[in-house]
Amino acid sequence: MNFLEDGFNNIIGLIITYGLRIALLVIAFLVVAPIGKKVISSSLAKASKRESVSEARINTLEKLVLNVFSYTLIFIFVVMFFGIIGLPLGPLLAGAGVLGLAIGFGAQGLVSDVVTGFFLLLERQIEIGEYVTTAGYNGIVEEVGLRTTKIRSFDGTLNFIPNRDLTGVSNHSRGTMRALVDIGISYDDNIDHAMAVLQKVCDEFKEDERFTEGPDVLGVQGFGSSDVVLRLLGRTENMLQWSAERDIRKRIKEMFDQEGIEIPYPHQVNVTKQTN
């Protein structure tokens, strides 16, 4: 009876000991994780002020470093957990090595993702907050990782793209952008008069803070089936070209209405044949 009681007490003691150690490990993990993330964010923020690094670059690096920190912390947690419960890591690591060798031939895509992601970050091809077109998607970059990149389309869809598919990246957020507006007038209208009216519109927008150059009337762009196409062009601050184009089109319509200049639109003519 004493033997059973001693055994039971030993088991209870082991459970309490291991339970306390595991609880302390979990608490340490829950404490270290947020503190580490906060230290990383504050360190990168201070570094950006000293080195005058762009905000987009800092956000990109912050996401990446936080991911690496989380993976490393999880790995340390697992190793320490095995150490607490007394599970030998040698055989596990050896087995993992054999398993890794077995699946290594099927992990070429993963390796390609990591290598491509590394060069995307090294060459600064894309950064968080930039508008890009790549892999058949276009939108705003939300995260650049070592394996996948997240791009948010303008309809709100979040696209997870493997880095190996990011070929032929078009970055629309580097430097100034072009605001281009084509407007059609009737063949019966005076082209010089229409261009003079358009130039008045352009002169109004030259004071707009969105424009860094222009806008100006380029002239006749082409001839349509029912209209003469005139073109305006200017340079705007990044990502402001669309709002500038919308406002220019609205102002052109108002000015054309005042000047009696017609913007052609499809007409339908019905011919009725009378029979006796």
From TrEMBL:
Keywords: Cell membrane, Membrane, Transmembrane, Transmembrane helix. Signal peptide: none annotated. Residues 181-263 form the Mechanosensitive ion channel MscS C-terminal domain. Residues 67-108 form the Mechanosensitive ion channel transmembrane helices 2/3 domain. The chain crosses the membrane at residues 12-36, 64-87, 93-122. Its main location: membrane. Residues 110-174 form the Mechanosensitive ion channel MscS domain. It is a multi-pass membrane protein. InterPro entries: LSM_dom_sf, MS_channel_1st, MS_channel_C, MscS_beta-dom_sf, MscS_channel_2nd, MscS_channel_C_sf, MscS_channel_TM-2, YbiO_bact. It is found in: Cell membrane. Belongs to the MscS (TC 1.A.23) family. This is Mechanosensitive ion channel family protein.
